[in-house]
Design goal:
Length: 206
């Protein structure tokens, strides 16, 4: 099926002008009736595949990003977020890989108490959120990552999270923090995500 060039131009304009990633539902609502959004996005993605910007899917939404091999040119301008402390980095990592996680579970994995300030930093960044209360004694609050986290770190889905070896190779971690990755592998991560969904079904939302 051929794609209407005008529809492609319209979608391209919307994506360029948007201040944040757009989902397919939003794009469809702004395009003429009958526009084949999947084919349109594929056409734009292919057109920009080898250009200075690429059409990228993040957290299920679409946006233009600088081509990965040219990101070094904007490195100075992009360093606007304050550096996370080791405690905040470990806490964020635990929540990302073990969500939904309670405060007690985070402390157990890290082996130390969790300060309120550490969680506040992650909440202020918009990277974590409450996921509900676990149906166990005390009904503790559980935490998980947000759509903003996925977008900030260039991920489309939680399953795209890198393993410890990949993080170390990228220079993001010097050593494995507190055994956080001790049981994780690509296969194990997929299984854990499935388990998390089952666990979420048994939790009570706020």
């Amino acid at each position: 099926m051929s794609v209407d060039p005008d529809h492609v131009r319209m979608a391209e304009a919307l994506l360029f002008a948007a201040s944040e990633p757009l989902d397919e539902k939003t794009l469809t609502a702004r395009l003429p009736e009958g526009a084949e959004i999947a084919a349109i996005l594929q056409t734009i993605q292919e057109h920009y595949q080898h250009k200075g910007v690429n059409l990228t899917r993040l957290a299920g939404k679409w946006t233009f990003l600088t081509a990965p091999d040219l990101s070094w040119m904007l490195e100075e301008e992009r360093q606007t977020t304050r550096r996370l402390s080791r405690a905040a980095l470990e806490t964020l990592t635990i929540i990302a890989y073990h969500q939904p996680a309670t405060r007690a579970e985070i402390e157990e994995i890290r082996g130390v108490g969790l300060s309120r300030g550490t969680m506040d930093v992650l909440f202020e960044a918009g990277w974590i959120r409450p996921r509900g209360r676990r149906r166990t004694p005390g009904r503790p609050v559980t935490y998980g990552i947000t759509e903003e986290f996925l977008i900030h770190f260039g991920l489309d889905d939680i399953k795209d999270l890198p393993g410890f070896d990949e993080l170390k190779a990228a220079g993001l971690l010097d050593s494995e923090p507190s055994g956080i990755f001790s049981h994780l592998s690509k296969e194990g991560l997929d299984e854990e995500n499935d388990d998390d969904q089952d666990e979420l079904d048994s939790e009570e939302e706020f």
